[in-house]
Write a structure and sequence with these properties.
The structure holds 2 protein chains of 2 kinds. Chain A is built from 37 helices and 43 strands. By secondary structure, chain A is of the alpha/beta class. Chain A folds into 5 domains: 56 residues, no CATH class; 48 residues; 167 residues, Dimethylsulfoxide Reductase, domain 2 (3-Layer(aba) Sandwich), CATH 3.40.228.10; 156 residues, Barwin-like endoglucanases (Beta Barrel); 332 residues, Alpha-Beta Plaits, CATH 3.30.70.20. Classes of the chains: A alpha/beta, B mainly alpha.
C-alpha cells in the first residue's frame, strides 16, 4: 500500500471531475471567445463573417501598430551627478523594515534613485538575512497610489489641503492651546524606536496630563500581563527556539504570525536542519483548534476545542507535577498527545519551551508556570532581553474609548493605528472620536480612522524615513531614507517636536541622538552603514518566578465553558492584521495552508461541513466534486459576541470538528462604501469581510475565540483557490521519513526512488541512469551548470520566496477573477500536500518552480523554439519568440509554466485594452493598480515586462546570474559564480534553498547533493528522465509514528510491476 | 542622413590612418599611447600647451631627466618643496592630479609623447573607393547588357525561325509580340515576385532599425572636436561604459569641468552638411545656459536645467545589453559598434544594432581565454575545463564568445 499525498478531496477520492480538471490545465472554456469552443465553427455564435471581420481588423491594426514612424526618445542626464550614483548600477543601503512593532533589518536595493527590492541584512544575528512575505511586499506600499499627498484639514465633509507645514503646525498648535486643560492622548501601535520614544516623552512633558496609549490590532496583552504577574516585568520575553530540543505550542503560530516570525523561523530552522553524519532535530508538538502554518510543520499535532485550550494547559501542568487539577478531557487522542508532550518536556528540562497563542492572562500564567517547571526560565525563555515587538495593553485602550465617550479627552493623535477598522466595538470608538475636539491622524492613507479625523498629516513611508528600532532589547536597527519623499509628507516625530516647541526636525534630532549614543559621528556613520548595533551575545537570563497567582488562574480557567460550535479568529501570513490589505502582491499570495487568494472565509473540517452544510466531501464523491470544482462556495452566518457576519465555507482537514476559523485583515471599507477603492485602495476593495467585530473583551484583554452560532444561508460566494491548479496527478513527488528510521537506516527514506532508478537503468542495459536510460544524447555543460537544492525539512511554507520572486521578476498580478480561472502568474508556488490521517493529516510544503530539466519535455514541443536549453543548464524562455501555443505548458510534468491570457501589465502594443476587460467582468480593477505610473516604479529594469499571449516561467533569476558572471569576469575570479543567490533563496528565513554552480565541487549545492546530504537528495519525478536541475532534500519528522512513503511489505513483489508500468 | 559611401570612405580612411600609425610606432610606444589617452589626454597634449604643458620634451625642460617620473606620483609633496613645480603651477594655474603609475608606465607615456608627430591630414583615396563602387555598377551594367543581348538574340532567333518556316512553307499563327508572350510574362512575374518579396522582407526586417539616424541635438556637440582633435578619452565623459550597462551621457557638471576654462571655440570652422557654419562659441554659451554658469563672474548664478539630448542608439525593451561587459571585459573599442566617432561632427547611428549584427560579432570574437600554462587571460574562464583540454590537445586553437554560450537566447533576452 503506497502512502498517498493529496492536495484536494477530489485527488484523494480520485474523482472524475478531478481527473478532468487536472487534464485541462489551461481553463480555456472560460475565455471571452468561449462560444467558439467545442461546437463546429458554423454553429458557433461567432460565425465565419465575424471571424473574417476579426481577421481583417487585426491585420489592419497590426499594420498600424507597426507603422514606420519611430518615436523620438530623449536621454536626460543629471545636472550634477551624485558621486555614488552610476545610472544602471544598483546601490544597497542598510535600513529596517518596520511594520507596527515588528522590525527586521534589511538591505534596500536602490536603482537609479528608486528602491526596487528588499533583502534581509545578513549581518543581523537575529534574522541572519531572513525576510517575510509582508516584508518583501512592503516596498509596493511606497508606490501606493492611495497614499496621501499633502497635509489636510477637514472642512465640512471634505478635506482641504493645508499648503505649508508651518500653517499646519499653527492650526494644530492653536487648537491644542484651546483644549482647556483636557488631556491629549497619543494613540499608536507598538513603538520600540528609542529616539521616537524620547520624542514622545518630550511631547508629553510639554502637555501635562497627556499620555501615550499603545494599541495593537491583534493583541498580546494577555502574555504581557501574565509576565508581569509571574516575573514582575510588563513585557514579553525573548524566546530561544534554537535552544529548545522540545517545542510545545498551544496554538501559537510562531512561524507565521506570532510576535516575531522571521526571528523565530531562523531559530527554529537551526534545530530542524539535518547534519547527515550526526542527525538530530528538535521535536515540535502542536496543540491547536484550527490548522496553522506552524501546526503544519509540527512533528505531531493534536486538535482540541478552542475552549479546551486551558484544559490542555492545565493537564500538561498537572502531568509535569504542577499542583493544579485539570478538567477532564474526553478525547483519547488528545490525552495521548498531552502525555506525549509532558514526557518529552520532562525528559528535556532546560532545553524545552512551551509557547501559547492565547490572549487570556490566566492561561498565560499557567504557561509561565509550565515553563518554570521545565527549566525554561533563563534558558529558552529569556527575560533579560525582552521582545519589544508588541506592547499594547487592552485595558488601556478600552479605558481611552470610554473616556472619549465621556468627553474627557481633548486631543487624540493617531499614528500607525486604525481602530475604526480594528477595534472590536468600532461604533463605540467612532462615537467617542466625534466627541474629541482635536483629532489628528498621521496615517499614510485616508483609512477608516483617518477619514474621521479633523486633521491629516501623513508621515513618510519607512523607505523615506530616518529611524531606529529595538525589536529585542539591545539589538538596535537603523532606518535611513533611500528615496526623497515622493509626496508632501513629514515624519510624525517632526510634528510632535514642533508641537513640543522643539525647533529641530526629526532628521536632525535623530542624528544628534545617535551621534551622542554612538560616541562619534564616525561611529554613527558606521552604524548606519551596517544597519545594526548588536551586543556580542544575547544577555540571556531568567527572572524570579512568582507562582502566587497560579492557583487563582487555574481556578478561573477550570470554569471555562464551551459551546457546540466555537469560533477561532486568526491572522493570515499574507494580510496580517489588515494594514496590508491594499497590497496586491499579498492579496494574490495563496495562503500557505488553504491556498485561497483575495478573500477570507470560514475554515471548517469535513465533519462539521457534513453537519452544517450537508456536504460530505470525503464520503460522497458527487457532493465533494460539486463543492470543490466550482469556485462558488456555500456561505454560512457566524454569530459570536452578539455580532453576525456571512462568509463562504472552506472545507479543509485538520480542524477540530467543533471549530470555525476566520481571518482578520479583510473587509476594509470607507464610511462611504463607494469611496473604498479611492481611499483605501482597489485591491482592498471588496476583499472579504471584517471579522474584528466578532472579537470579545473579557474585562482584561481581547479574546480571539468564542462560542459561536453557525447557520447555513443558501447563498454562495466565489473563492479563488489555487490548490488544485497544476496537479502532479498523484505521482510520487515527496519523500518523507522519520528521524529515528533515518538514523538507523539512512538509505531507507529514498529506497523507492533508488530502486526505481536502478530498474530503469538496468532495463536500458546501462550503468549510469543519466546517460544510459534515454535515447537523447548527453550534452555537456562546459563551464557552469546551475543547480538548486531545496530542503523540505526546513521549508516552513511561509511564502516569503513567492513574493520575493514576484518583486524580482516583475510577475504580474492577475486579480481574483483570473486566479479563479487558473490564470495566476506566480513563477514559484508552494504546493501543500496532505498525507496520512484524513481528519488530522500531516502537511508537507514543497516549493515548486521550473525544474530546468536537462531533457526538458517543454522544449521538444515548441514549434518556434521559443523555449530551449542553454549550455549552463537553464531552460530559457524567449518571450518575443513565443506565439502562445501553450504546448510547452501542456507537456510540463511540473505544471510551472504560466500563460499571459490577458494584458495584465499594460505592456501590450495596443493601449487601453484593459478597461473593456474590466467592464466585461473578465478582470478585476485591482490589476490596474499595478499598471499605474507610480506603481510601475517598483519594476526591476533588468527584467522584461511580459505582454499578452506569451508563456513565462522561472528563469533561475537569470539577470542575477548574468550579473554575477560579469562581476566574476571583472574581478578575474571564477569563485564569484560558485554560490549565487536567487531571489527566493535570499528571501528565505530558514535558508532552505541553496543555489550555485554544480560543476564547481566547492559550491554549496554540489556539496549538499554529493557529500553532505546525499541520503536525502532526490529529484521530483526522476523516473521520467527529464533530469531536473532542481533537487530536493527529503523531509524528516521527529516522531514515533510511521511516516515513511512505503509500507514495509511493498517493494519485494510489487515494485517491478510499477517499474514496468512506468516504462511502458 | 549620411550616405553609405561616405561612411565607407570614413572607415577606409581611418583604416589607412590606423595602418600608417601602427607602422611608425614601436611596440612600447603603442602601450604609452593607451596610457596617455587614459590618464593624461584630458589635460595634456603632446605638441601644444593645454590645461597643462605639452608633454613632448618634458624631460628635457625639467631640471633633471628623472624629475618628470618622480613628479607624476608625488605632485602634492613636490608642490610644497620643489621650485620647478611651483613655477609650473604659477604658469598654468591648476594643480595636476596626483597619479599612482609605475615608473615604466610613466616612461612609456613620455616616450610616446616624444615620438609623437602631428598626424598627416587623413589620406582620402578616391580612386580606390571609386573602383570598389564601380564594380557593382559594372556588374549591373554587364547584367543589363547581357539581358538585352539575350533578348535580342531570342528575337533574332524567333525572326529567323519565322523566316525559315516561311521558306519551308510551314504556316504558323501570327507571331505574338514579346510583351504578350506568356513565357516572357511568366518569367517577368516570377522575377518581380522574387525581387518584390526579397525587398519587402528586407524592408520589414529593417523596420525599427535606425542606422544613419542623426537627429538634431539641443546643442551642436561635435565628437570630432572633442574626441578627435582634442583627443579626450571616451571614458572621461562616458565612464558608465566600464561600470554599468549604460554608457551614460555625461551630466552637465562633467562638461563644465573643462568648459569653465574653455569659453570660446577657436578650432577649425565647423561646417554643417547644409553648408551652414556652426558658431562653436555660441554652442558653448548654450551649455552655460543649461548649467546656469556665468563665464564673466565665474559663478553659477542661475538655476541650471538638465539637457534633453535626443537618444540615438535605442535597443528594444526585450534586449539586455551591458556596456561594461563589452568595454571592460571584452576590451572592445567604442568604434567597433559606434563607428569612427572621433570623426563625426554630429553623431549618427553607425551600426544597425540588429540581432544578426550582434550574433555575427559573437561568433567571430575570441574571448580572453585563460591559459593555465602561462597564467595569461581572464581567470574566470578557468572553469571551462573541457576547452582547456581541447586547446591542450590541439583540437581547438581559440575560444569564441559563441563557444561559451554567447549566442544563446538568454544572454540578451530575459
Amino acid at each position: 500500500m503506497e502512502k498517498k499525498y493529496w492536495q484536494s478531496f477530489g485527488e484523494l477520492n480520485k474523482s472524475e471531475a478531478f481527473q478532468e480538471s487536472a487534464e485541462n490545465e489551461f481553463q480555456e472554456d472560460l475565455l471571452p471567445l468561449e462560444d467558439l469552443d467545442g461546437k463546429g465553427l458554423l454553429d458557433a455564435k461567432s460565425p465565419r463573417r465575424d471571424f473574417l471581420k476579426y481577421l481583417g481588423f487585426s491585420t489592419a491594426a497590426a499594420t498600424l501598430a507597426a507603422s514606420c514612424e519611430m518615436p523620438v526618445r530623449h536621454v536626460v542626464p543629471y545636472l550634477q551627478r551624485p558621486d555614488d550614483v552610476v545610472p544602471g548600477v544598483s546601490n544597497f543601503y542598510a535600513s529596517t523594515y518596520v511594520n507596527e512593532g515588528e522590525a527586521v533589518p534589511v538591505l534596500v536595493k536602490q536603482r537609479d534613485g528608486r528602491p526596487i527590492k528588499l533583502e534581509g541584512n545578513e549581518s543581523s544575528t537575529l534574522t541572519y538575512g531572513g525576510t517575510s512575505a509582508q516584508l518583501q511586499a512592503s516596498i509596493l506600499g511606497l508606490y501606493d497610489t492611495t497614499r496621501l499627498r499633502y497635509p489636510m484639514q477637514k472642512v465640512g465633509n471634505d478635506f482641504k489641503e493645508v499648503t505649508t507645514f508651518a500653517a499646519f503646525d499653527k492650526l494644530v498648535g492653536d487648537a491644542l492651546n484651546g483644549l482647556g486643560g483636557k488631556p491629549i492622548v497619543l494613540l499608536t501601535s507598538t513603538i520600540n524606536s528609542p529616539s521616537t520614544l524620547q520624542v514622545i516623552a518630550e511631547f508629553l512633558a510639554k502637555y501635562p496630563g497627556s499620555r501615550h496609549v499603545q494599541y495593537d490590532a491583534v493583541s498580546y496583552s494577555g502574555l504581557i500581563l501574565a509576565n508581569e504577574a509571574s516575573y514582575g516585568k510588563r513585557a514579553i520575553p525573548s524566546y530561544h527556539f534554537e535552544k529548545a530540543k522540545v517545542i510545545v505550542s498551544l496554538g501559537a503560530d510562531f512561524l507565521g504570525t506570532w510576535l516575531n516570525p522571521v526571528v523565530f523561523s531562523a531559530q527554529y530552522a537551526t534545530n530542524r536542519r539535518i547534519v547527515e553524519n550526526k542527525p538530530t532535530m528538535s521535536q515540535h508538538i502542536q496543540f491547536e483548534s484550527s490548522l496553522s502554518l506552524t501546526g503544519s510543520n509540527a512533528d505531531d499535532r493534536f486538535m482540541h476545542k478552542p475552549s479546551e485550550k486551558a484544559a490542555v494547559a492545565l493537564a500538561l501542568m498537572a502531568k509535569l507535577g504542577g499542583a493544579v487539577t485539570a478538567p477532564a478531557i474526553t478525547d483519547a487522542a488528545l490525552n495521548k498527545g498531552i502525555e506525549k508532550a509532558a514526557a518529552a518536556l520532562s525528559a528535556n528540562k532546560g532545553a524545552a519551551l512551551v509557547v501559547c497563542g492565547s490572549n487570556d492572562v490566566n492561561l498565560q500564567v499557567i504557561v509561565s508556570a509550565i515553563n518554570e517547571a521545565i527549566g525554561a526560565n533563563g534558558t529558552t525563555v529569556d527575560l533579560a532581553s525582552t521582545c519589544n515587538t508588541k506592547a499594547g495593553v487592552d485595558a488601556d485602550m478600552v479605558r481611552l474609548v470610554e473616556e472619549m465617550n465621556a468627553g474627557a479627552i481633548g486631543g487624540l493623535f493617531i499614528h500607525a493605528a486604525n481602530p475604526v477598522y480594528t477595534y472590536h466595538n468600532a461604533k463605540r470608538f467612532v462615537d467617542g472620536l466625534s466627541k474629541v475636539p482635536l483629532s489628528v491622524s498621521f496615517n499614510a492613507t485616508l483609512d477608516e480612522t483617518a477619514e474621521l479625523c479633523k486633521y491629516n498629516i501623513p508621515t513618510h513611508h519607512w523607505l523615506e524615513s530616518w529611524g531606529d528600532a529595538e525589536p529585542v532589547t539591545g539589538f538596535i536597527s537603523f532606518q535611513q531614507p533611500t528615496i526623497n519623499p515622493l509626496f508632501k509628507t513629514r515624519p510624525f516625530q517632526t510634528t510632535l517636536l514642533k508641537l513640543a516647541g522643539n525647533p529641530s526636525d526629526y532628521d536632525t534630532y535623530f542624528k544628534a541622538y545617535w551621534v551622542a549614543k554612538a560616541g562619534s559621528e564616525d561611529a554613527y556613520n558606521t552604524a548606519l552603514q551596517n544597519g545594526i548595533i548588536e551586543p556580542a551575545a544575547f544577555a540571556t537570563g531568567g527572572a524570579g518566578f512568582n507562582g502566587a497567582g497560579v492557583a487563582a488562574s487555574a481556578g478561573k480557567l477550570a470554569g471555562a465553558k464551551g459551546g457546540t460550535y466555537e469560533l477561532v479568529i486568526y491572522q493570515k501570513v499574507s494580510i496580517g492584521n489588515g494594514n496590508y490589505a491594499n497590497n496586491p502582491w499579498l492579496q494574490e499570495l495563496p495562503d500557505p495552508v488553504t491556498k485561497v487568494t483575495w478573500d477570507n472565509y470560514a475554515m471548517m473540517s469535513p465533519a462539521l461541513a457534513k453537519t452544517i452544510l450537508d456536504i460530505d466531501v470525503q464520503g460522497n464523491q458527487r457532493q465533494g466534486d460539486s463543492y470543490e470544482v466550482h469556485p462558488e462556495k456555500p456561505t454560512i452566518t457566524i454569530t459570536a459576541n452578539g455580532k453576525t457576519i456571512e462568509l463562504p465555507v472552506l472545507i479543509i482537514p485538520g480542524l477540530h470538528p467543533s471549530t470555525v476559523a476566520v481571518a482578520v485583515g479583510y473587509g476594509r471599507q470607507s464610511a462611504d462604501k463607494t469611496k473604498t477603492a479611492e481611499h483605501i485602495g482597489r485591491s482592498a476593495n471588496g476583499a472579504g469581510q471584517n471579522v474584528y467585530p466578532l472579537v470579545g473583551f473579557d474585562g482584561t484583554s481581547f479574546r480571539y475565540s468564542a462560542v459561536a452560532e453557525i447557520k447555513k444561508t443558501g447563498n454562495t460566494y466565489a473563492l479563488a483557490q489555487t490548490q488544485v491548479h497544476g496537479s502532479s496527478e498523484s505521482r510520487p513527488v515527496i519523500y518523507e521519513g522519520s528521524l529515528a528510521k533515518f538514523v538507523s537506516d539512512p538509505e531507507h527514506v529514498l529506497e523507492e526512488a533508488t530502486h526505481e532508478r536502478n530498474l530503469l537503468t538496468a532495463a536500458a542495459g546501462g550503468k549510469d541512469y543519466v546517460k544510459d536510460a534515454t535515447l537523447y544524447p548527453d550534452y555537456i555543460k562546459p563551464g557552469i551548470k546551475w543547480g538548486m537544492s531545496i530542503d523540505l525539512n526546513t521549508c516552513t511554507g511561509c511564502s516569503a520566496c513567492v513574493v520575493a520572486c514576484t518583486a524580482e521578476n516583475n510577475v504580474a498580478v492577475v486579480g481574483k477573477i483570473q486566479v479563479a480561472k487558473y490564470h495566476e502568474m506566480h513563477w514559484l508556488r508552494i504546493d501543500r500536500y496532505f498525507t496520512g490521517d484524513h481528519d488530522n493529516p500531516d502537511v508537507v510544503f514543497q516549493p515548486m518552480l521550473c525544474q530546468h530539466c536537462d531533457n526538458a519535455p517543454c522544449e521538444n514541443v515548441c514549434p518556434v523554439a521559443a523555449t530551449n536549453h542553454n549550455s549552463e543548464g537553464i531552460n530559457q524562455m524567449i518571450y518575443n519568440r513565443c506565439i502562445g501555443t501553450r504546448y510547452c505548458g501542456n507537456n510540463c510534468p511540473f505544471k510551472v509554466r504560466r500563460f499571459n491570457w490577458l494584458d495584465y501589465t499594460g505592456a501590450d502594443s495596443f493601449g487601453d485594452n484593459q478597461q473593456p476587460m474590466i467592464d466585461g467582468g473578465y478582470m478585476n480593477e485591482s490589476v490596474l493598480q499595478m499598471n499605474d505610473e507610480l506603481t510601475r516604479m517598483v519594476l526591476n529594469p533588468d527584467v522584461t515586462v511580459r505582454s499578452r499571449g506569451v508563456i513565462e516561467k522561472c528563469s533561475f533569476c537569470v539577470q542575477r546570474l548574468q550579473e554575477a558572471k560579469l562581476v566574476a569576469k571583472k574581478a578575474n575570479d571564477a569563485a564569484v559564480v560558485r554560490n549565487v543567490k536567487t531571489a527566493c533563496m535570499q528571501a528565505c528565513p530558514t535558508h532552505a534553498i541553496s543555489f550555485g554552480n554544480v560543476n564547481d565541487h566547492e559550491s554549496e549545492v554540489y556539496k549538499i547533493r554529493n557529500v553532505e546530504q546525499k541520503h536525502r537528495n532526490f529529484y521530483v519525478l526522476e523516473q521520467l528522465h527529464v533530469l531536473p536541475n532542481v533537487s530536493y532534500l527529503a523531509k524528516l519528522k521527529n516522531t514515533d509514528r510511521d511516516v515513511t512513503n512505503m509500507k514495509e511489505e511493498h517493494h519485494s513483489e510489487e515494485a517491478p510491476k510499477t517499474a514496468e508500468k512506468t516504462h511502458a | 542622413m549620411i550616405r553609405d559611401t561616405k561612411s565607407f570612405n570614413n572607415i577606409l580612411a581611418s583604416l589607412l590612418f590606423i595602418a600608417l600609425f601602427s607602422f611608425t610606432n614601436t611596440v612600447f610606444a603603442a602601450d604609452g599611447e593607451a596610457l596617455f589617452k587614459a590618464n593624461c589626454s584630458n589635460c595634456h597634449k603632446p605638441l601644444e600647451d593645454y590645461t597643462g604643458p605639452k608633454l613632448q620634451g618634458a624631460r628635457k625642460r625639467a631640471p633633471n631627466p628623472d624629475w618628470s617620473v618622480k613628479w607624476v606620483n608625488n605632485v602634492n609633496s613636490m608642490l610644497e618643496t620643489d621650485a620647478y613645480a611651483k613655477s609650473l603651477l604659477a604658469k598654468y594655474g591648476s594643480r595636476m592630479t596626483q597619479f599612482n603609475l609605475k615608473e615604466d608606465e610613466i616612461v612609456a607615456i613620455l616616450d610616446y609623447a616624444d615620438a609623437y608627430k602631428a598626424p598627416a591630414a587623413p589620406v582620402t583615396a578616391p580612386g580606390e573607393t571609386q573602383s570598389k563602387d564601380d564594380n557593382s555598377l559594372l556588374f549591373g551594367i554587364l547584367t543589363l547588357i547581357l539581358a538585352i543581348i539575350a533578348l535580342i538574340l531570342l528575337q533574332v532567333n524567333s525572326s529567323l525561325r519565322k523566316l525559315s518556316d516561311e521558306k519551308e512553307g510551314i504556316r504558323r499563327g501570327e507571331p505574338v509580340p514579346f510583351y504578350r508572350n506568356k513565357t516572357y510574362l511568366m518569367i517577368g512575374i516570377l522575377v518581380l515576385f522574387t525581387l518584390g518579396g526579397y525587398m519587402t522582407i528586407n524592408a520589414a526586417m529593417g523596420l525599427g532599425r535606425m542606422n544613419g539616424y542623426q537627429p538634431e541635438q539641443p546643442i551642436y556637440y561635435s565628437h570630432k572636436v572633442h574626441a578627435g582633435t582634442n583627443q579626450i578619452s571616451c571614458l572621461y565623459c562616458h565612464g558608465g561604459a566600464q561600470d554599468s550597462k549604460h554608457a551614460n551621457v555625461p551630466s552637465v557638471n562633467v562638461c563644465m569641468n573643462c568648459h569653465m576654462a574653455i569659453k570660446e571655440y577657436k578650432g577649425d570652422p565647423i561646417i554643417k552638411e547644409n553648408g551652414m557654419q556652426v558658431n562653436g562659441t555660441a554652442e558653448i554659451q548654450k551649455l552655460y545656459n543649461y548649467a546656469g554658469w556665468n563665464p564673466d563672474t565665474k559663478k553659477y548664478d542661475r538655476p541650471g536645467k538638465p539637457i534633453e539630448w535626443v537618444k540615438i542608439h535605442s535597443l528594444p525593451d526585450h534586449v539586455y545589453f551591458n556596456h561594461s561587459q563589452h568595454v571592460k571585459v571584452g576590451k572592445q573599442n567604442c568604434q567597433t559598434c559606434h563607428g569612427n566617432i572621433q570623426e563625426m561632427p554630429e553623431v549618427y547611428q553607425f551600426s544597425d544594432l540588429s540581432m544578426g549584427w550582434c550574433v555575427n560579432c559573437h561568433r567571430e570574437t575570441k574571448v580572453d581565454f585563460y591559459n593555465k600554462g602561462t597564467g595569461e587571460g581572464n581567470k574566470f574562464y578557468s572553469i571551462y575545463e573541457k576547452f582547456h583540454n581541447d586547446i591542450q590537445s590541439g583540437k581547438l586553437d581559440s575560444v569564441t564568445v559563441e563557444k561559451i554560450g554567447g549566442t544563446e537566447c538568454q544572454k540578451c533576452h530575459y
